[in-house]
TrEMBL record, chain A:
SMART domains: AAA. This is ABC transporter ATP-binding protein. Residues 36-261 form the ABC transporter domain. Belongs to the ABC transporter superfamily. GO terms for molecular function: ATP binding. Keywords: ATP-binding, Nucleotide-binding, Transport. InterPro entries: AAA+_ATPase, ABC_transporter-like_ATP-bd, ABC_transporter-like_CS, ABC_transpr_TagH-like, Bact_Polysacc_Export_ATP-bd, P-loop_NTPase. It comes from the Bacteria.
TrEMBL record, chain B:
It is a multi-pass membrane protein. Belongs to the ABC-2 integral membrane protein family. This is Transport permease protein. The chain crosses the membrane at residues 76-96, 108-130, 162-179, 185-209, 282-302. Its main location: membrane. Residues 73-304 form the ABC transmembrane type-2 domain. Pfam families: ABC2_membrane (PF01061). It is found in: Cell inner membrane; Cell membrane. Keywords: Antibiotic resistance, Cell inner membrane, Cell membrane, Membrane, Transmembrane, Transmembrane helix, Transport. Residues 1-22 are annotated as: Disordered. The keyword Transmembrane applies.
């Protein structure tokens, strides 16, 4: 799969020594009482801002991805996979180092834009607009989004507020909205695990379609099977550092050995 | 950069290519890649923002609808909330404190109601602005859009809320003997100026609030002080008339933006509220505040565009 683009390989994403640091207010000292907060403020001036704890989530990751690649990101929980994806999408500023991209990479996900108090119908429109689709595009795809989600299979649920949905239904609708747009560089964060079996098959199918249309796909998943099925290259992150970068089989074998599976 | 990348990176087995010796920055330049999440130029930023106008509108309407969707009376609260607000203020300031000095009852009631609604418009835009980035970090970290969309959208939500309040206000005006006339049209430019002013203020507060979320706790006190200093429930000149103060103090107090916009709308709506109650050059001052705060707020917000969303 990667063979035909080894000669004139066109880079789509270049990460150059990327560091990402989260700052958490009130995390320092482990005590959240008012006196603790006050004493932190009094100690101002020694090094970092008071009461702020730093979490160094990604430490010096560098790689280059090329057009046509599908790259899996693996690592244990909290290893910095999702954070790295957000930095590639330009959503989290880097502390140090740079990410260069071809066009605007997008994260597959609209969860945050949707509102539980609104009907599914309005959420489809809101989510589409939030992703940067035009009103015409949304109108064209509205029916296919609803059909794909299967929300209306058990009655007219799309006109009910989203808070009345079961968690599976809500997850299905979110995925359907997110997957309705075409992307240049697409990043998928464990989206495969939503919904019932029937929906999973449908969404895997849709992801394969999206892969064909997109230049490069990044996939974060804890399912080694879905990584093996879709990716030809894997980045293994551990504690924010890039432990391994190579062909899927090689990296997965090392990862499985390390994690004892 | 670290040695960890070397164990596996070689294994991708790319044949030697002319790109091998390039640094990442040179490679990026060669293929025209741009830095992800870099701040666009000001004009490009305005263009992107214009491209998201449908999102801004839809988001504000969604927030407005979601606000009362759990209540039994539903959207009726859009009108009932400002009405109850006006009633409370009338009870306290009109009947108990008798702050209506120098004004007839027919003037004071619409005067007070206008003041409350118009000030609330600015107040809630500021409050929503403070939280617009810090309260929507999930959205900021998940999707790509010009961040100014959020504070603008919240200000727009408050404008729509105000339009509901205006229904109440017009009814109150008519009930107290101010009938529709051509001068009512003056309300439109006055509201437009105030809206621009509010957007600018919301943008400034959004950037400050994204860095220091504590502002959300502090702002209610600042806003309340501002409210009492702006003559929401009393007339500034009438209150200061018996104090031994130089005349310019009254002018300065009346030139504060909240007082200017309240006065402009009162002047348009209320028959008994003539131009004698307004400070000199009031339209110019109103326009000046709108342009100054609107433009300054926009540039100030844009300057930190790439930094919103940092944890």
């Amino acid at each position: 799969m990667a063979d035909d683009n080894t000669q004139g390989r066109i880079p789509t994403v270049i990460a150059d020594d990327v560091h990402i640091v989260y700052r958490v207010n009130g995390g320092a000292g482990g005590r959240g009482s008012a006196t603790a907060a006050l004493s932190r403020i009094m100690k101002r001036g020694k090094g970092d801002a008071p009461g702020v704890r730093k979490v160094h989530a990604v430490r010096g990751v560098s790689f280059t991805s090329y057009r046509g690649e599908a790259i899996g990101l693996i690592g244990t929980n909290g290893s910095g996979k999702s954070t790295l994806l957000r930095a590639i999408a330009g959503l989290l500023p880097t502390e140090q180092g740079k990410v260069y991209t071809d066009g605007q990479p997008s994260l597959l996900g609209v969860n945050a834009a949707l509102m539980n108090d609104l009907t599914g119908e309005r959420n489809v429109i809101l989510g589409g607009l939030a992703m940067g689709m035009t009103r015409e595009q949304i109108r064209d795809r509205y029916q296919s989004i609803v059909d794909f989600s299967g929300i209306n299979e058990k009655g007219d649920f799309i006109t009910l507020p989203m808070r009345t949905y079961s968690s599976g239904m809500a997850a299905r609708l979110r995925f359907s909205i997110a997957a309705a747009k075409d992307h240049d560089v697409l990043m998928i964060d464990e989206a495969l695990a939503t919904g019932d079996r029937k929906f999973q098959i449908r969404s895997e199918q849709r992801i394969r379609e999206l892969r064909k249309e997109a230049g490069t796909v990044f996939l974060v998943s804890h399912s080694n099977k879905s990584i093996r099925d879709t990716c030809d290259r894997v980045l293994w992150l551990e504690k924010g550092e890039l432990l391994m970068d190579g062909p899927t089989d090689e990296v997965l074998k090392a990862y499985e050995k390390e994690t004892g599976r | 950069m670290s040695d960890t990348t070397h164990d596996g990176a070689v294994a991708t087995s790319a044949p030697p290519s002319p790109d091998d010796g390039l640094t990442p920055a040179e490679l990026a330049a060669k293929y025209g890649l741009s830095v992800s999440g870099a701040r666009p130029g000001l004009i490009e930023y305005v263009r992107q923002l214009w491209g998201r106008r449908h999102f801004i509108l839809a988001f504000s309407q969604a927030k407005l609808t979601a606000q009362y969707s759990q209540a039994k009376l539903g959207q009726l609260w859009q009108v009932a909330t400002p009405l109850l607000n006006a009633l409370v203020y009338f009870l306290i300031f009109g009947l108990i404190l008798e702050a209506d000095r120098g004004m007839a009852r027919e003037v004071y009631v619409p005067f007070l109601v206008t003041g409350v609604f118009v000030f609330t418009f600015t107040q809630s835009s500021v409050m929503a602005g403070v939280r617009s980035i810090s309260g929507n970090l999930g959205l900021v970290r998940a999707l790509h859009f010009p961040r100014a969309s959020l504070p603008i959208s919240f200000a727009l939500q408050q404008l729509q809320q105000l339009l509901f309040s205006m229904i109440v206000l017009l009814v109150v005006a008519v009930a107290f003997g101010s009938y529709p006339s051509l001068s009512w049209l003056l309300v439109l430019p006055a509201l437009a100026l105030q809206f621009v002013f509010n957007i600018g203020l919301a943008l400034i507060m959004a950037r400050l609030g994204s860095k220091t979320p504590d502002l959300a706790q502090l702002m209610p006190f600042v806003m309340r002080t501002w409210m009492y200093a702006s003559g929401v429930m009393f007339s500034i000149p009438a209150m200061l008339a018996d104090k031994d103060l130089p005349g310019w103090v009254t002018d300065v107090l009346q030139w504060n933006p909240a007082a200017v916009y309240m006065d402009l709308i009162r002047f348009g709506l209320i028959d008994g509220y003539g131009s004698g109650n307004l400070p000199p050059h009031v339209w110019a001052v109103g326009l000046g505040w709108a342009l100054l705060v609107g433009a300054a707020g926009f540039v100030y917000f844009w300057k930190a565009e790439e930094r919103y969303g940092r944890g």
